[in-house]
Structure formats: structure tokens, C-alpha cells
């Protein structure tokens, strides 16, 4: 039996081989368990526990004992305190304790031009006060509200980080290197999710498609900045969940969605940061587009044909997903294991594959926990490669169209780079400048990261 430190090194090697284009010893496993699931698994009340965090370490510990995942299983969660302080309309805790995203519209169609002129300025001045009404007040009150929200947000970040690190070391999980993770949204999804909403964007596609195109281009620098972590690395990733693409007609996808989505993923890759893209719903009609993304993009599929995906994308990109989480509730343990074997047989040959389910189990009653654990245990024990250490299957596929385009630098009067700061404060002691620059820029970026997660 390996100790936690040895196990962590083995798991690290699995993922690094995968990302280096080498056949690993076996198929790596990345299977997330949301905070809400972990609370339910330990019989903790959802709403109260999210506020107090009482018992949360024990709940996460219990979930870690149940899983055989190689990657630390705790998934991203939203924190209630700063949302309550801000009076959030876009993220609201329901009576069941889940924080949900209701349909909202925070930008009028007549405001496209203002958004296009400078998206971040528009967010700060118009969108955020509408989504978070506690900011829609006088400057003094707004400052106090934001100060409380900022403190609350990073208190939760720190509390979870301490628990996560303890459990990672205790159970030998792998996770991305520090400073190499980020999240972003495709420009079209960004405009659809909170600014216009599902209903209004559907109308905009018909009445002002050119404005959507301009808005997507304008939002691109913001999303690239949001998706760029402090330390870009091929062993880290930027998570991008695709929302609206499959609901569009192909001609609208080609015109409105794909261009800035592609530019964003390429820009991140050129900076050394790969994207982990959750292809929500069924992306089979867009496989030729996904093929043109940078090599070793990580494509995580919800639905579709795994054989076709392996054939079209499996020699260029890293594939995961497809295992229907609902199967764990409706099928026998043997049938669940057979399904895992079927997907491994299809997707594992040649490497460039890690195992995960098609989505995370949000509620405890959405799966049979015994089946969940049995499937992951099966993958650990039955997905070893006979040709570990060899080069993974590879096929260079050239893009259909030139990708490199000039993307404007992210600029806003509400974001101050160190150079901007120096222009205002010309009396800085040159000896202190290197120390001050790093420290002050860190605080600037902390504010940016929090605000970027509010929309």
C-alpha cells in the first residue's frame, strides 16, 4: 500500500504524462464532487453549513474516502456571504439550500454601444449595480458594501484552501500547480448569461446580430484576462463551460459564437495556458470546429458519440466525459462497470484520455454512491496501458483559417496596472518599486478576480 506522498507522486506522473503526450501507466481519473453533494453525503444542512462551514472539513474528508479519483475531487462552489451582502439577483440561494442562477437581464438592447466602447467600464457602471442592488447607492455606502463583500469572499477562499490542502496531503490527490488555474466564459456566453439573458439574446440574434458580433469582439480582451492565471502552464488549465452553442443554428454559431471562442482559446494556448472545455449538451455537429482548436486542448463531453469523437479528435486533443451519471442511479453495479469498460475500450487506446463522468452528481439522490465508488475503483484497477511510456497517438491537423489576430489589450479606467499607478504617483522610491509593484498589483488583481466571478 502506497503512502499518501508516494500516491500523490504517482498521480502527478499520470497527469503530467497525459499532458506531455506520453502514454501514462493507466487512465487518469478526474471526477469532481460538488460541495453540496459532500454536505448531503454527511447529512449536513445545506444552507446553514454553507454559511458557517461547520462540519465541512469532515464532510469533504468522508467524500475523499469514498472516491478513487486521482485529482482532488472537491469542485468549485459559490459562497453565500458576499452574494447576500451585495444583494445578488444573479445568484440566489433557494429554499433547498442550492445557490441557483435565475434568468436575469442586466443590460438593455439600447446599451450595446456603451458595452462595445468598453465592456469593463459598462459592467462597473451599469451591470453590476443592477445585478447587485446593494451597490446601487451613494459612493460612501457602495464602498462599505464592497469592502464587506471583498472580505467575506476571500475569507471563504482562505477557509476552503486550508481544508483542501490538508486533504490533498492526507489522501495523496493530484491537483494543478499553484497559480495555474483560471476560469473564463466565451464572449457570446458571457453576453447571454447575465447581460441579456436567454430570452433576450434569442431576439437579438434576429434583430441586431451585428451588435452581438461587435460586443463579442469587445468582450474578448476581458475574457482572455479573466482566463489567464498568474503562472500559465501546460500542467494547469483554464476551465470554460460552453452554454449557448448547441442552441444556435449552425449559421448563427459560425457567425456569432465560434470566432471569438476560437480566438480566446488560441490566445490562451499561445501564452502557454491550455483550456479545459466542458462541451455541454451535444456538440457532435461542431466536431470539425473543435478539431481546429490548439493541440492538447482538453475537451470534456456531456453527450455524443465517443467513437466518432475518438476518431476525429483523439489524435490531437485530450478527451474525457461521456459516462452518463444517471446510469449510476438506474443500472446495476455490473452494468455500471460494463459501461466504464465500454468507454475505456473506445477512448483509452493511444492515450490522450482521462476518465470522468458526463457531469457531476449535484444531489445525493442523483446517484447510487456504491455504484459511483465501484466504477472509479474499476477504472483504477483495469485501465492499465501495456505500452506506457510510449508517445501518445498524434496527428498534426492544420487550422482551416489563420487564427493569429491582433487582440486589443484589456483596458479600463477601473483597472489600474502598475504603469498606470506610477503615472499618478511619480514620487515612488526606485529602491522600493519592485516590492511595491508586486504587492499593489496583487491587490488590484484580487479585486478583478472577484468582480469577474460576479458575472
Q: What descriptive keywords fit this protein?
A:
455 residues, alpha/beta, five-stranded parallel beta sheet, two-stranded antiparallel ribbon, 51% helix, globular, Uroporphyrinogen decarboxylase, UROD/MetE-like_sf
What's the Cα radius of gyration? 23 Å
Strands in their spatial order, largest beta sheet: 3-4-5-6-7
What is the number of E strands?
Answer: 7
Q: Helix proportion of residues, in percent?
A: 40-55%
Low-confidence segments, given as residue ranges, are: none
Distance between the termini: 46 Å
Could you state the oligomeric state of the chains shown?
Answer: single chain
Alpha plus pi helix count: 18
Order of H and E elements? HHHHHEEHHHEHHEHEHEHEHHHHH
* Secondary-structure-derived class: alpha/beta
Shape: globular
- Mean pLDDT metric: 95
Main sheet record: 5 strands, parallel
DSSP strand (E) fraction? 5-15%
Characterise the protein shown here.
The protein has 455 residues and is an alpha/beta fold. Helix content is 51%, strand content 7%. It has helices spanning 4-19, 35-41, 46-52, 56-66, 80-86, 112-117, 119-131, 139-171, 187-207, 209-227, 250-270, 287-291, 306-313, 327-330, 333-347, 369-382, 418-424, 433-452; strands at 92-93, 99-100, 181-184, 237-242, 275-282, 298-303, 318-321. The strands form two sheets. Strands 3-4-5-6-7 form a five-stranded parallel sheet. A two-stranded antiparallel sheet has the order 1-2. A hairpin with a 5-residue loop joins β1 and β2 (99-100). α2 (35-41) packs across α4 and α5 (80-86) runs antiparallel to α8. The N and C termini lie far apart (46 Å). The mean pLDDT is 95. This is Uroporphyrinogen decarboxylase.
